[in-house]
Amino acid sequence: MSESAGESGSGGGRITSIDALRGFDMMLIVGGREAILGLTLAFGLDRTHEVLLGQFEHPAWNGFTAWDMIFPLFLFLAGASLPFSFAKRRERGDSRKRLALHAVRRGLVLALLGVVYNGLLALDLESLRVASVLGRIGLAWAGAALVVLFLGVRGQAIALAAVLLAHSVAILFVPAPGLDAASLEPGQTFGDWVDRQLTPGRLYKGDRDPEGVFGILPAIGTALLGSFAGRWIGRRELSDGARLGGLVGGGIACLALGGALDLAGLPINKNLWTASFVLWAGGWSLLLLALFHFVFDVRRADRLALVFTVVGANAILAYLAGAFIDVRDVVELVMGRGLERGKLHPALVPVLALALQWAVLAFLYRRRVFLRV
Questions:
Q1: Would you say 134 and 111 are in contact if contact means Cβ atoms under 8 Å apart?
Q2: Could you give the CA distance from residue 120 to residue 135 in angstroms, rounded to a whole number?
């Protein structure tokens, strides 16, 4: 879903951390969660299973769990790749106009693929959901890409603050038509009302959709945070300690500000993609990127990086395949006798399913076969 960071645009050093972290995130999406939970069951770690199960589910409304990191982290990393992607294309001779057209086209194609993932090929247009995770990533990434292309660093910082402030003011102070006051309850926010008017197709929750059009605005902020992080770790004139310190310091600052907004009445809420959610998830994203930057860019753990990058390199293919192929069904079919005779613990099926997906993606990676948008 995101272009590779590849070579740094400011010194030629390899930036592996972004690609590796993207692959780690994608591994969780395509079956890592189920594999981890399966391992805890297979080895009788009931208490660990219970704790992880709670962290691998989304809160009903307000709040934050580890599973809430998956989506914004991917968008954050898409933004982190922007400085490198644009630097390569500018070196190749691409004009700013051409890059802008590429960003818009890519965003729209990802949105279309999101509709395909939701069941477009079934041709049941009446029940089709148009909003999607891919659509949110594509359109928010495209918005951030245009900001990065046409504004300097100061302008990008102002744009980040502006989108978060505009969204916050709208949901905190503007009542949805028919209500006497602004509400942050499910289905009653101003953003929910906008989505009912503008988001085509069926809404995921009936009266609201967590991937509706209104949430694209603050999601642009998530991608912009990533672009700042990518630009920072691409500054090869800085020492390793300075780059790591900047990421950690930025992460702590975002967590502090996001937590303060939550306490002040703007709850951390993924459904609404509130500014506090952007900052809280962005803070954890920065800390994770700092960890991966240390392991893979500073300490150069290349073999471990390959485990993740083979997945991240074909992220679109890995994600879309899940809409058409249930890999666990394949494993159960192949291992049927082992399951029947008790030689294979049922909880290990998702572990084997993840391993099978990784093997296929590794084969494609070695053959340099990638699905690009």
A1: yes
A2: 14
d(CA 273, CA 163) in angstroms, rounded, equals: 12
**C-alpha angle 307-290-371 in degrees, rounded to nearest 5:** 40
Report pTM: 0.93
Rg of the chain's alpha carbons, rounded to an integer?
21
Q: H helices of the chain, where? A: 17-27, 33-42, 46-55, 70-80, 82-91, 96-117, 133-150, 153-173, 190-198, 216-233, 240-264, 275-292, 302-312, 315-321, 327-334, 336-340, 349-366
Contact present, 22 and 307 (Cβ < 8 Å):
no
Place of tokens 């409304």: 61
pLDDT, tens digit, 9 for 90 and up, residues 342-360: 667 888 899 999 999 999 9
Residue 342, SS3 per DSSP: coil
* Environment class of 143 (CB within 10 Å of its CB; exposed 0-12, middle 13-18, buried 19+): buried
* pLDDT average per 10 residues of sequence, the chain (373 residues): 51 74 96 95 93 94 96 97 93 93 96 95 90 97 97 96 98 96 96 96 95 97 98 93 97 98 98 98 98 95 94 93 89 76 80 95 94 85
| Spatial separation of the C-alpha atoms in residues 361 and 369, rounded to whole Å | 9
Structure tokens at 362: 């590794």
